[in-house]
């Protein structure tokens, strides 16, 4: 069996690392299973993608489509053109896509038009928010997928409601957590730790990159100002995403407790998350990591495609509602944050289950 694995953006690399390792293990056991790794180049900043190959011991890609930035349509078109040629030159039995980025959707379309079966890792998740590009990517991908590998019962139910056959749905757990657990003891201090004398549970981490939060100056200014005020007794470490940096360049948001840093590698960023008092974010993947690390998480969104992080884990949705953010911060600062639990099968073995299912299929 020849599998082409697609990765294009930072969240993808965390998901493919354990999958590649699981394939290599099966190959050593004598199974006829091979993979080819295609990097679409959707994220091309070294801190957003390049360092992940080194840190997570991912073999260098067999192919890089080098699509780089552009509008949603431009990126989608460039990925599709590049991936179509890739499949012509390197035929395979199965295309595996992960997550919900533009590369996930674009490569799924190309594969199906080439009559190649598709496996979607992290299938079935839904936020219900059609303003999110990722939601459209999820819907299109799952409408074409052949084999659905899911992280939760919520995702299973979403697929069943769509009419997907239960025989094609495989509840395997969360490959993001495979990577986190494997590297938990390898996490390393970023330079900011010593530079400003951080100490455990005495600071917060903030990340922002959703268009609804960072594409309009007044909204971004309002969010940052409120968070900085509410967390005034804590240093707030803010790794700045490139799209966020563009707006920040025009704003004069300088506060004594707000510390801007460049995007961090996987090991450094998760070191900060693990030891933080709390995390404020609009990312979906980070809410999974905070749940497993038992770190309070405030999500600046009105919906989530990972409801288990709220129902079971340490995450709370606060949206952009000033009063809700204030109320939630009061709970956080009072020391009465809810006690989270780790969702079912988030045990570090999801990738092994995926590859075992593919071999059985």
In a nutshell, what does this entry contain?
By secondary structure, the protein is of the alpha/beta class. The chain is built from 16 helices and 13 strands.
Fold and architecture overview:
The structure is a single chain. The protein is of the alpha/beta class. The chain contains 16 helices and 13 strands. It has helices at 10-28, 46-55, 72-89, 102-113, 133-144, 153-161, 175-183, 191-195, 211-214, 217-230, 242-248, 266-275, 285-293, 308-311, 322-334, 350-360; strands at 2-7, 34-39, 63-64, 94-98, 117-121, 147-150, 169-171, 204-206, 236-239, 258-261, 278-281, 297-299, 315-317. The chain has a 7-stranded parallel sheet, with helices on both faces. A 6-stranded parallel sheet has the order 10-9-8-11-12-13, sandwiched between helices. It is globular. The model has no long low-confidence stretch (mean pLDDT 94).
Distinctive features:
361 residues; Rossmann fold; six-stranded parallel beta sheet; seven-stranded parallel beta sheet; alpha/beta
> How does the overall form come out from the CA principal axes?
globular
CATH topology descriptor of the largest domain: Rossmann fold
Total of DSSP H or I helical runs spanning 4+ residues: 16
Q: Poorly predicted ranges (pLDDT <50, ≥5 residues)?
A: none
CATH architectural arrangement of the largest domain? 3-Layer(aba) Sandwich
Write down the Rg: 20 Å
- The count of β-strands is 13
Average pLDDT for all residues: 94
**Termini separation (Å)?**
11 Å
Give the total of domains. Answer: 2
């Amino acid at each position: 069996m020849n599998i082409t694995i697609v990765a294009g953006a930072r969240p993808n690399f965390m998901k493919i690392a354990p999958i590649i390792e699981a394939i290599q293990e099966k190959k050593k056991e004598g199974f006829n299973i091979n993979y080819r790794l295609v990097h679409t180049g959707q994220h091309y900043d070294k801190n957003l993608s390049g360092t992940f190959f080194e840190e997570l011991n991912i073999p260098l890609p067999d192919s890089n489509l080098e699509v780089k930035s552009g509008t949603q349509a431009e990126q989608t078109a460039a990925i599709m053109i590049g991936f179509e040629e890739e499949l012509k030159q390197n035929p395979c039995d199965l295309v595996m896509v992960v997550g919900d980025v533009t590369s996930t959707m674009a490569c799924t379309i190309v594969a199906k038009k080439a009559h190649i079966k598709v496996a979607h890792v992290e299938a079935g998740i839904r936020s219900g928010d059609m303003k999110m590009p990722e939601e459209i990517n999820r819907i299109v991908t799952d409408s074409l997928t052949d084999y659905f590998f899911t992280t939760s019962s919520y995702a299973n139910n979403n697929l069943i409601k769509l009419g997907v056959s239960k025989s094609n749905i495989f509840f395997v757990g969360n490959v993001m957590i495979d990577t986190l657990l494997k590297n938990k003891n390898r996490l390393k201090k970023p330079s900011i730790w010593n530079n400003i004398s951080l100490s455990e549970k005495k600071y917060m981490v903030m990340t922002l990159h959703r268009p609804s939060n960072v594409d309009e100056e007044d909204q971004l200014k309002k969010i940052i100002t409120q968070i900085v005020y509410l967390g005034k007794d804590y240093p707030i470490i803010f790794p700045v995403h490139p799209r966020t940096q563009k707006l920040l360049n025009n704003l004069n948001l300088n506060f004594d407790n707000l510390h801007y840093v460049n995007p961090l590698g996987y090991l450094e960023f998760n070191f900060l998350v693990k030891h933080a008092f709390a995390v404020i974010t609009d990312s979906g993947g980070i809410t999974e990591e905070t749940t497993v690390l038992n770190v309070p998480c405030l999500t600046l969104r009105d919906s989530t495609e990972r409801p288990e992080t709220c129902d079971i884990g340490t995450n709370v949705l606060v949206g952009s509602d000033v009063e809700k953010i204030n109320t939630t911060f009061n709970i956080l600062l009072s020391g009465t944050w809810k006690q989270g639990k780790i969702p079912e099968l988030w045990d570090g073995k999801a990738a092994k289950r995926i590859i075992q299912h593919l071999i059985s299929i």
